[in-house]
Every structure is written in structure tokens, then in C-alpha cells.
Structures
1.
Amino acid sequence: MAKIKFLTLARHIIEEEKKHPHATGELSGLLHDLSLAAKVISLEVNKAGLVDILGFTGDSNVHGERVKKLDIFAHDMLIWAMDHGGHLCVMASEEEEDIIHIPPKYNIGKYVLLFDPLDGSSNIDANVSIGTIFSIYRRVSPAGEPGTLEDCLQQGFKQVAAGYVVYGSSTILVYTAGNGVHGFTLDPAFGEFILSHKNIQTPKKSKIYSINEGNYLYWHPGLKKYIKYLQEEDEQTGRPYTGRYIGSMIADFHRNLLYGGIFMYPADSRNPNGKLRLMYECNPVAFIIEQAGGKAIDGKQRILDIKPENLHQRVPIFVGSE
Ligand code: AHM
Ligand code: MG
């Protein structure tokens, strides 16, 4: 197997930037700041079993779900790392109801950052993989003024970059800036993200399906039929498929990105819009999967074409191999 050349994330970002003659280096700076936040969160996640940080805080987030301390830590860390780099005009987080303003001295940036600080948070107590997801847009409000809600509510196809970090058996950062998908594994010894997955292409076909089958009763008859179809035996089409569902969307997504497959969080009779959030979860993975040669739809249309109506809107999602 050909060896990938030894390249840090920082170096890779610079090399990518050189390909764009008019690049100002702002996006590179932004990605660099994000990787710093990811390293700190990774360290904290790895310590989670050791320090008194587990358990519920007793607070709820804007979706009425119980929030764990590590979510808040990740949310705070991202704001702390990102709000004074001069690259952003506004941010939004899954853990905060309204947009997050950048302090006046620094809100001069041309970019907008949206993030899910810790996806799969119900898995923290069990040492199961969790992750941070991010999405970057160019501002649409006038330069020099504070960023607005309108800056955050853009269609997914307008993303400039998107990525995620999975805190798993190792920590991996995967991102796209519209020129392929690249993965960098954190070397815990010297604290650098090293290129480990160059230009990821998701397999066109695979045998993995990922869905919470506990919701079967509430599914649309068409979906029930489709899942049944995947479970039937048929040598020619490679069925039955095999089920894999972690309960951390980003970890499920990452496995399927590498091995191929389909991840689904559909609408059902109890949750007419599914569960996952368009701005923090669906749009970033949709951008990444399309860059990797796959697809992401809500059942009717391309995820990246959905016109967002509010910051925390949920949409059904089917994402994976073509
Ligand atoms: P979170 O962002 O609060 O962690 O919630 C999103 C998570 C996804 O990671 C995961 O796919 C889904 O919720 C699991 O939900 P369910 O338990 O309904 O299958
Ligand atoms: Mg989430």
C-alpha cells in the first residue's frame, strides 16, 4: 500500500490555500483555531471517566433535552477558542437558543460558524464515540457590522467548509473545504493532527444500514418496506444488509463514510421532522458526503437545497453511499 506523505493538518491547510491565488488565509486561520479547540475537547473527553465531570447538570438545552457537563465544556471551549480570531462575524451552537455574538473588537471576520459541540452526548457515560460537528459559511450581512441570524440561516450548498471530530479509539478530524474530504488522526504523543485519510471517497455500494429500529412502530409504511427489503436474502443484490447503530450520528456517519452504507434518521408519526438538526448536523454531513461521492436527502429533496427557517430546525435525513 502506498504510504501517505507525512503531513500535519496545519501544513495541509497551508498547501490547500496556496491552490487559491486570492485566498487571504482567513479560512486557514479559522480551521486552525477549530483544530486547537478539538484538541482541548479531545483531552477532556479522554479524562471524562476520571474527573467529576459526568452526570447531568440538571439543566436542559433549547430542545428540552437534559444536558451533560461535557457538552457545556465543549460548547464553552469552542466559543472561547473561536470568538477572538478576527475570522468570524457570528456563531451559532446546538446548545444555545440564539445566535452567538462575537465581541465588537473581533467581529470583523467574513465567516460564520455553526457547531454541534458534542454530538452523541447520551453516550458519554459509556465511553462510546462522540464528536464535534462544524459548518462554515461566508457572511451575507455587510462587512464591518455585527453578524446576524440571516448569516446563519443559509442553505447548505453555500457552505464554504464543514467537518467533524470523532473522539473514538483515536481522535480524528475530517473536513472538506469543497476540494475533497481529508481525515487527520490526532497523535496523542505530540498533539498534532496528521493526515491519515487522504481524499476520502465513500464506496458506491455497501451492506451497512444504520437506523434506530426501536422506532419501527412509528415509521411510514414505505420505510418499513424498505428496511424489510434490506433484511431479505438475495445474493445478487448482496442482501441481507447488516445493521450498525451507535446512537452517535457522527460516529455512525464516519464509519459509513469509510465503509459505505446508509445512515437514516427518518420522520415518524411521533417526530414529523425526524430528530437531527439541519444547521448543526445534517448540512455539514451532507456537504462532506457529496464531496466524498455520496448523497444526502430528506426523503424528498437534497439536504443542501433545504431553505432553513430557524436555527434549530429538524429534518429527516438519509445519508450515505449513492
Ligand atoms: P445530540 O446532538 O443531543 O447528541 O443528539 C443527536 C443524537 C445523534 O447523535 C444520534 O444519531 C441520535 O441523537 C440518536 O437518537 P435516538 O436515540 O433517537 O436514536
Ligand atoms: Mg448532535
2.
Amino acid sequence: MSIVDTVLTGLDSELAGLRDTYRQLHRHPELSFQEHGTSQLVAEKLASFGYSVQHIGGTGVVGVLANGEGPTVLSRADMDALPVTEATGLPYASTVEGVMHACGHDVHVTALLGAAQLLAQGRDAWSGTFIALFQPAEELGGGSQAMVDDGLAAKVPRPDVVLGQHVMPLPAGVVATATGPVLSAGDSLKVTVHGKGSHGSMPHMSVDPVVLAASIVLKLQTIVSRETKPGEFAVVTVGALNAGTKSNIIPDRAVLLLNIRSYDNKLRTRVLDAIERIVKGECAAAGSPREPEFEFYDQFPLTSNDAGVTEKVTAAFTSHFGGAAVQHASRQTASEDFSRIPDAFGVPYTYWLLGGCDPQTYRAAAARGTVEQDIPANHSPFFAPVVEPTLSMGVQSHVAAALAYLGPN
Ligand code: ZN
Ligand code: ZN
């Protein structure tokens, strides 16, 4: 029997309890940085499994299981829900008005709790330290940073490797891994440009920030189309443009809200530099009386999987689940704040995707070529991972990945 199978012998008897935990979390979703009930449930369970438990970064919880000599593995789950009104009609649908686990973080919490429990029960089979980390507020991009700012790196043993997973609209029963960038870096940027207000009939008395902002919006389009190598990925979106109140008043400022996505940190820097250069250049050309202001918010780092870690974890998945269950993950344009945790320790990581969609439904949609139209994605009010085999795959993935490091070699 493999070491993974040995540790997983307890899974069958724990699954009923894990499904209850999942449904309980799904019924009681909590918004970012308000994960008080979830945090308490996690802390109590970790303590009952024998972990030493700390609260880090507000509602963040970390459990450490020191089990002799050997490597240290940190596995991470996020806990927050979204301001979405659930429309799934599930018997265990959200009971909180306007709040829903629409990104599947309840799956992540339950799966990591299950793995933490089985690794504790099966501790005779492995050696090292296992850390189960439950972070708040992934959806705001600030939860992992809150834990880092609260001294995470000094409060827990330094891991050799950090692992994480996300449930996605892939068939349940499948895990998907990839080396290199799997999720984009995401930046939101508020740009304020200044003009000189005047009466709408007297444009010669003004520096018109509406014309200035319009010019900036158009010129920004050249960053991707003219400055970025064809085939490289970058997105620059102006999601909001606000100026003025009335047709006959020239306002004195305009505010643009930009969203930037990239898979490469050097390219990201080039894009951000180009935005600054273009905005400043357009302001100078317009005769703007004050320097523009730039304010970043909702920033997500790049998620770029380490090749060595990913190969080791993928091999563990293939050996445990069989090759057919392990797919190559395609790059997602979505973003995550997961990588701030390994980056705080300066250690490598891998982050894999966990299938959550009913396999028959998925296969039928795939045969029609309508997966994107017919399968509700994360953040949809209809997002509804099937409980099984999603949960048991999520538990097994965490156990198999951790034991790739903690098991005897
Ligand atoms: Zn999400
Ligand atoms: Zn998510």
C-alpha cells in the first residue's frame, strides 16, 4: 500500500462529516475579512486534530503539526465568500441575503480540513511538519497580505514548499497542473488628471480634462497594440471614466479607473511604466496645471508555478489518481493573492486546479462545444460544484501533494 493510501484509509469514515462541514459553510457564507464563524470552526477543528493553532491577520488561522524530522509543507485555503445572491436552488443554498460562496472557497476550506485531519491521524506514516493555513479575503486581494503583515513568516516554521488549489469549472474527478504562470497578475489603478474649470461657453479659459481624459483612453490602447510583442499577453482596460456634472460646465478634473492583467512581471512593469508615461505626456500636451495622481488598489500578484515543485506534485497526482485524472491546466486570466504567502518566506510553490463540475454535464457541454456558455463559472450566482467527487478529490489532492514531501523517499 502506498504511503498516500495509508494516510487516506480514514477518508471514507470522515467523508460524511466533511460533507456536513461543506454544506454548513455553504449555508453560512461570510464576506472578506468577516470570516468570523468560518475562522472559529476551522480553529476548533484544527485544535481537535492536535494542531497548534494561531490566529494571524484578523480572521486568518494557521495550524501547525510538528511530526518529527523532515521537510515542512504549508498548504493554503481561502475562506471568504462574495456579495452575490445565490440562484442555485440547492437544498444547502446560502441563508445569508446577498452573500454566497460563489467561488468555491468553502470547498477549499473543507478539503484542507479533511487533509489536515487525515495527516494527523496518519502521522505514523510520515515525518516532518505540516502547516494548514486558512486565509481571509482572497477576493479583495488583501487577505494573504494581512497575514504577512501580521508577522506570518516569524510566527510559523519556514516551509520548504507552499501548496494551494482552486475549484474550477472542470469535470469533478480531475485535477489540472501547470508550470509557470497559471493566473495573471491583476492591478487596479485610479488615475486623476487635472484641468482648469470654466464655463462651457468659454473653452479658451479652460484646460478641458474631458478632452484630456478621452485622449488618454485612446492613447492607452497603443500599449497592448503597439508596444507589446504580438503573442505576449497583456490587458489594459479603462473600466470607468468620470468627469463633470453638467453640459455647460467644463470640470477641473477627470478620474479614470484602469485594470491591468499580465503573466510576466517584466511586462507588467513595462505596461505600468507606459501608462504613467502616456498619462503624464498627455497632461503635458494639454497644459494640465498639476501633475496627475496615480493610486493603485486591489492588486493581485502573479501566480507562477515552480517547475520542480509542480513536477513533483504532478507525479504524485498521476501515481495516486492515474494519468487520466491529471490534466494540463490552461492559463487563467483570473488572479489570486496566494503567491504572497510563499513569497513572504521566499520559497517555491505550486497551485493546481480542482474540477468541480458534474462530469456528465461537463462532457455533454464539451461535446456541444458550449462549456463556457453552459457551465456556470466561479462568481456566477449559479456556481454549484457537485459535492462528490469534488470534496474527496480536494482532500486527496492535498494529502498526495503534501506527502510528496513528507513521505519517506
Ligand atoms: Zn473568486
Ligand atoms: Zn476563488
